[in-house]
Amino acid sequence: MRHAPGAVLLFAAILFLWNLGGYDLWAPDEPYFAEGAREMLADGHWIVPHVNGTLTTDKPPLFFWVVAGVSLPAGEVTSWTARLPSALASLASVALTMRLAGRLLGAASGPLAGAVLATTYLFWDKARSAQIDALLSLLVLGTVYAFVRVREEAWGAARGGAIFWGCAALAVLAKGPVGLLLPLGVAAAVSALDRDARPWRRLVPWWGPLLFAGLVGSWVALAHGRDGYSVWAALREHFFERAARGMHHVQPPWYYAQVLPAHLLPWTGVVLGGAVVAARRRDATARLLLGWAGFVVLFFSISTEKRGLYVLPAYPAFAMLAAAFARRAEGEDRGARSWLAAALGVPAGAYVLGAVALPLLRERLPQQALDAALVLSVALAVSGAVALVALASALRRGLWTVAAGTGVVYFVVAATVHPALDPVKSARAFATTVARITGHPDAAGKPIVTAGLGNVPEAIAYYTRGLYTEERSGAEAVARHFQEEGGRFAIVSREVYEALPEELRRGLSIRARARVSRADALLLERARGAP
User: Fold this and answer.
1) Global pTM?
2) Cβ distance 141 to 90 under 8 Å?
3) Which among 9, 19, 172, 512 is most buried, taking Cβ atoms within 10 Å?
């Protein structure tokens, strides 16, 4: 047991780091962040991130800084360096979750909570993605850890306040106001459930908010007005308006009830059991975990804009709820034992069924994925069968076997499935073709315009190392581009192409096409002398 935390960390490191750079960065999100970091190195845009050659107001700079910093020794941003910050942040989250669970639930629960967190599907997926959310989750976890230590009276105001407000400031520099609202909301929710505001008051020494303001304010002072950047305009567009009306991911209030069951696999049933037991017990630990997870999910449920990864900061609490429930099932609670056996048996059985189903889908799979599918089928069959046998002998053994088997499945996916899907998921081949046909960088005339392609332009800029395009909104803007003197190339979605005037289309040729990030991307060229 003494070596269990180290074994779990090694297990998580393998899951997060193995073949991390063995396949390209995939749209929509990964090339966006990689390109912003690449432009910091190439063009010197360190204060306010630029993406696709233009200032971006979508995100603050911290994650771009970290990726660029990790990439400095190699001199370029690669799949490995772009994803490494997320992998390391997730590994730190597993370590801190084990430490927190050990304090709250007992030493034996720490490694279990870490193993659950590392093998929860969404957490593992984001640990291997060049996206902000794994870093944000770690920083929010840091604020919660500080709050818990102050709540236990183990830390004084100086230490607890410094870590709480420092992590909150970094979280804001990573993802904007949500980096402050989540820590404040979790602390307030737990204090309300405790009916005790003393820990909250101890977290707010007079200098705590000043530390926060100093860290965030330093960047704001440097960024505001630079290259036309307005902090207030960015807040209005990407925080208030996005929360009120949505921008790209408008979802109903019950959205997380739909997606969390899949994203929490294979621990969905165990987490649910832990939440039910915690709601009944309502002791200090139960109040903390319910207030933590409940506030994060409720906060994003209220917002119009929703994505499954937004609630990643709640996943350490989910993992601890699962660990607490598993420990309870090891006692004399027969109902908990039955629930746990069923909650673990379902994913184990699903692995076996998945192994049977994959070969039946061979005709629907891309040719390059057939060998990977066969390896995955074997991994699913072995993992599921071993877990079912282990569950039949002992619940605890079955629980650890499900975690280990899930890790094997994830390892196979990272080692074989992701590289096999790379030709389908990556924009590299299309971007290279665009650069060759247009004569990168300036296409010998007006800039290339794009429309209807989401973050595909950022992927083109990244894979061509600087072919910047101008994004236009809709077919009318694209038509005006072609009518201008020198307007020769455009990259558009099929929907935009079909909306162009028929007369204009007759004078265009489709020079290249590809399926990129769920969009059919077409490279259009106007024939010389065409109307």
Assistant:
1) 0.93
2) no
3) 172
